[in-house]
Amino acid sequence: MKIVQNADSNTLTLGLDGELDASSSVLLDAELTQPDILRHQKVMIDCQKLNYISSAGLGVFISHLQRFQDAGVKLVFFNMQEKVHNVFEILGLDSLMTIVPTQQEAAAL
Amino acid sequence: MTPFPRKLNSALLPGAALCWLAMLVGAVLRASPELAQQWGTVPDGALLGAHAGMTLFLFLHERNHLSRLRGTEFVALLRRLMMGAGLLAAAGAVVHFAAQALGLIPVASNTVPLNVLYVVNIGVTTFFLARAYNTWRSLVFFRATHTTRQRWYWFELLLGIALVLRLFIPGNALVYLAVPLLGLAILGVYLGSHQQWVAYISRKHRWAAVGLQLMALVVCVLLMVYFLSTQQDTTLVAPFGQRAFLLLMTAFSAFYSFVGLMVTFVTLPTATVFEQKREEILSMQRLAQFIQKGQSEQEVYSLLFDSAVQTVDADAAWLDLHEATANPALSHRIDATTSRRICDLLTDYNIGHIDYLNNDLPNSAGFRALNLPYGSLIVMPLRTSQSHVGTLYLLKHNTQGFDRENLGLLQTFTGQTVVRIENLRLMEESLHNELVKEELKIASLVQESLIPKVLPADSWFEIRWHSQAAREVGGDFYDFLQLSASRIAIIIGDVSGKGTTAAFHVAQLKGIFHTLMLLDQPEKGQPLQPSKFMTMANQALSHCLERSSFITASFYIIDYKERGFAFARAGHCHTLYYNAVTEETFYFQTAGLGLGILRDASYEKRIKNMYYDYNPGDVMVMYTDGIVEARDVNGEEYGEDRLRELLGRTFYLDAEEIKQAIVDDVEQFSHGLPPHDDQTLLIVKFKSTQPEVLA
Fold it and tell me: In the record, what terms sit under GO molecular function (chain B) (predicted)?
């Protein structure tokens, strides 16, 4: 699992590369826990290279969801592979989180 | 050298005695003309032969005799030699001298008594020399190399040659004897230098050894003087040749005693140092044994500290342990402030954590500034393979107080200590692991008891299940409850994460399930709605789930009277269904958020009820994601489609057979790889003939 950070004035883009399982979700949690992250208006998660997400990985997003909302930070997922999207959908997260097909759409939000 | 046949060996002493008797008879016959007239005279050769025979027999006997040295009891060995044969030989010579000087034995008229005394003396001296030869050999051989032993055998050979030659060569033709004598002299000097045994005499025996060696030297010199003086005595009738051999052997004995004496004298001052080194080695051995018996880290550290202080005789010392919480620091005649100041100084010099020896502390400006009464310092860190556990500091008042050997010794001590500490820690760790394993086994048993074993006897449908945890305890959950004669509740769930934490949540979910089922009161017109169940469960779980955990579940209430079921899905895998009328296989596509994701009232809006009328022969497949996410060797997932197609081929079978077909297919798909997630499967098949419901 690799996490590529890309920040501009008010948007932080995190590119996830590989499998988000129990061990790698600890890395992601560390990234999302940083206090600095709440200074951005929007956090975009690029899921193009995310091949797999475990319940631990989902748990990381779920646990930060409320915190982001309270701070007024938008959390947007884009470029999601179908099988990963399916996992979000089954759990009902697609109705709770913003998932869009492309980066342009994510940026436009 | 080959061992001497035992029979011959036992004949050696009697042989020597016979030879001696022959010598005595010969000497008496020679000394007394009257007897000689009656019995005849004895030729020189016979007399010499008898003496040579006796010498040979005695030496051979001693040569074959085992070493008389027991362990390192050198003083006892020397004492036996000197107090027995040594005193006897000396006494003989003294008596002869005294008798001559005081004129006790008449010489002019009758020389027989003097000659008898002389022959007795020769016998006793030969006996003494033979015993001395055995003793010297034991001493030379102590810790001797093979080469030294070889040289000794050459020495024996030359002695033998000298003995034989002496028999046949007239007394004044010494030139023939030059070669063996020269060889004997060289070997004698060489062998005389083999005094290793001296180093092993303990301090209290050292003066006794000096005394005995001095005595040996005096006795040998006395015997030499005796034989040299009697050589000129014409009243003694023994042939010249007899004495020369004895002189030779006595000279060697005297020489060996002399060298030994010198060595003992020279080593007297160093003996204490040697003794101290021996003590150090012994205490190291003791420590090695003790340390391996240390039952706690504290005990092991104490043993190390006490032994180190005692062995190097330190004036002050302390042991710093990095994990000081459990182990109070050990110190010896030094206060915490002083030790702190020294530590700080060492840290400033950046030598606080290496093996360090300074024998001239006053020469260091930094140390001088501390104004402490110490001259020498050793710093010895204790390192395990992974970490640095502590440091040992030793101080002495005088400079040059420690040496390299002390440092080496301490390294051994600390090495032993660290090995024992590591062993103790490993033991503790493995014990702990065993306990955890045991606890997990218990948890697994408890969880096993939470899972239903039997279903209430049912005539409307068949139900079969399969469950396999990836670890000892799992996060999958299923349960049934007969609500009334015609209503049954079924729940299947999956707690995020695996292992013990998940297992606890499973137990909570079971409790919530059974409690909430009490709310189902259809007879009062208040049947429990699945969505209501999910909302309440979500509320209950919100208080006990950690923020990153969630639970997915599907909940069903089957009502035979209504021939239908109500259900809700909270983020759980879609339920697979086979409709026997339309002959279609499909998934129930309902929306519903997992439990514990939203923890406020807004959850209620995100869970839906669904109602479905079943037909006889319909099949319902409930499962957890461990089934559809099972992977093959290429990392490909089993998937919903494959499962749906399989049910499309197996719907007509019994519930048991359908379950087995799915389990087999998943296993075949993953090629027997162990499941990376818990797998649970529930099959409900509505019977083809549904019994009539009594009103």
Answer: phosphatase activity
Q: Which residues contact B219 (CB under 8 A, 6 or more apart)?
A: B82, B86, B87, B89, B90, B128
Which chain B positions have a beta carbon within 8 Å of A62's beta carbon?
A: 547-548, 550, 597
The identity of residue B633, as a single letter, is V
The answer to whether residues B619 and B660 belong to one domain is: yes
Q: In this structure, is residue A48 part of a structural domain?
A: yes
- The residue among B321, B309, B498 whose CA lies nearest residue B406 is B309
Q: Are B342 and B233 found together in one domain? A: no
Q: Is residue A109 one of the residues assigned to a domain? A: no
Size of interface A-B (CB pairs under 8 A): 56
ipTM above 0.95, yes or no: no
CB pair distance less than 8 Å for A95 and B606: yes
Question: Domain range spanning residue B389?
Answer: 292-427
Written as six digits, the tokens of B346 are: 């060492």
Model confidence at B566: pLDDT above 90: yes
Q: Do B594 and A29 touch (CB under 8 A)?
A: no
Bridge partners of residue A78, in order along the sequence: A46, A100
Contact: A96, B547; criterion CB under 8 Å: no
Question: Could you tell me if residue B368 is inside a domain?
Answer: yes
pLDDT exceeds 60 at position B240: no
Would you call A59 an interface residue with chain B, using a CB distance cutoff of 8 Å? yes
Q: Does residue B291 surpass a pLDDT of 80? A: no
Whether B1 has a pLDDT exceeding 60, the answer reads no
What is the domain-level CATH number for residue A97? 3.30.750.24
Distance CA(B610)–CA(B584), nearest Å, equals: 19
Question: What element of type H or E holds A77?
Answer: strand A74-78
Q: Indicate the number of domains in chain B.
A: 3
Question: Does B228 lie in the same domain as B122?
Answer: yes
d(CA B445, CA B472): 9
pLDDT for B241 beyond 70: no
Q: Which of A60, A62, A92 sits opposite B606 (nearest CB)?
A: A92
**A18 and A1 Cβ atoms separated by less than 8 Å:** yes
Instruction: Measure B508 CA to nearest chain A CA, in Å.
Output: 19
Q: Which helix (H) or strand (E) holds B286?
A: helix B271-293
Q: Output DSSP code: residue B202.
A: -
The mean pLDDT of B100-114, rounded to a whole number, is: 74
Chain B residues at the A interface, defined by Cβ less than 8 Å, are 494, 496-498, 547-550, 552, 570-574, 591-594, 597-598, 606, 637
Number of domains in chain A: 1
Quick one: B507 and B421 in the same domain? no
* Torsion region of B336: left, alpha or beta (phi above 0 gives left; psi -120 to 50 gives alpha): alpha
What is d(CA B588, CA B566) in angstroms, rounded to the nearest whole number?
A: 12
Asked if A93 is an interface residue toward chain B (Cβ–Cβ < 8 A), one would say yes
pTM: 0.56
Nearest-Cα distance to chain A for B672, in Å, is 22
pLDDT per residue, tens digit, chain A (109 aa), is 888 888 887 899 999 999 898 888 888 999 899 888 888 899 999 999 998 898 889 999 998 988 898 899 999 999 999 989 999 999 999 988 999 999 999 888 8
Q: CA B505, B550, B437: angle at the middle one, nearest 5?
A: 40
Per the CB < 8 A criterion, the answer to whether B228 and B91 are in contact is no
Q: Are A79 and A48 in contact (CB under 8 A)?
A: yes
* B170 occurs within a structural domain: yes
Same-domain pairing of B123 and B253: yes
Question: Do B324 and B231 have their domain in common?
Answer: no
